[in-house]
Every structure is written in structure tokens, then in C-alpha cells.
Amino acid sequence: SAKYPLAIVAKLLNVFGGNLGGGCDISCQFKTTLNNSCLGPLAWSLHHTCLVGTFHGYAHKHLCQLISLITYIEGLGIEDLQ
User: Fold this and answer.
1) Mean pLDDT per 10-residue segment, the chain (82 residues)
2) CB neighbours of 4 closer than 8 A, spacing ≥ 6?
3) Are 24 and 56 within 8 A, CB to CB?
4) Which of 12, 16, 62, 75 has its CA 20 to 30 A from that of 47?
5) Are the C-beta atoms of 31 and 56 separated by less than 8 Å?
6) What predicted TM-score, i.e. pTM, was given to this entire model?
């Protein structure tokens, strides 16, 4: 069920505000769920980013890697989300 991750994102956005990134192993699919939910406009306006871990990216679509793979996100340093 997507209600728990959506509740977590809602709480994070309300407490910490914008420019957050959340990472999990299904972030590529969760991004679509988030965008289609009632939280979608809020997440978009606060620049929330869904991220995938390093090892997820190498076995997945090229476009997903370019958008969500933490290797290409400025400011994350050497974090791998694993």
C-alpha cells in the first residue's frame, strides 16, 4: 500500500519544507504515485526528489538512472542509499 510512504513524505514536507530528496528501492515507481496523489502539487512546488540507490540504477532503465540515480544528483556526496 502506498499510503504509508505518502504519509511519510507529507510529514517530511510539512516539517522540513522544500528541497528534500527521499530514497528507497522503488522510488522510480513511487514518484509516479506521489505525482498522481493529492501531495503531488505540494511535492512539486517544494522541489521534492525521489531517488534510487546506486545498485538499483545499474539494473534499470537508462532514463530512470539519469533522473533518479543518486550518482547524478548534486549535493549528495558519496552517499549510496544502501
Assistant:
1) 88 93 80 92 92 68 71 70 68
2) none
3) no
4) 62
5) no
6) 0.77
The residue type of 22 is G
Q: How far apart are CA 60 and CA 38, in angstroms?
A: 28
What does the block give as the cell for 74?
A: 548534486
49 φ, ψ (degrees, to nearest 5): -120, 135
> 1 to each of 5, 34, 45, how far by Cα in Å?
8, 12, 25
Q: Residue 25: how many CB atoms within 10 A of its CB?
A: 13
Q: Tell me, what's the pLDDT at 46?
A: 95
pLDDT of residue 2: 78
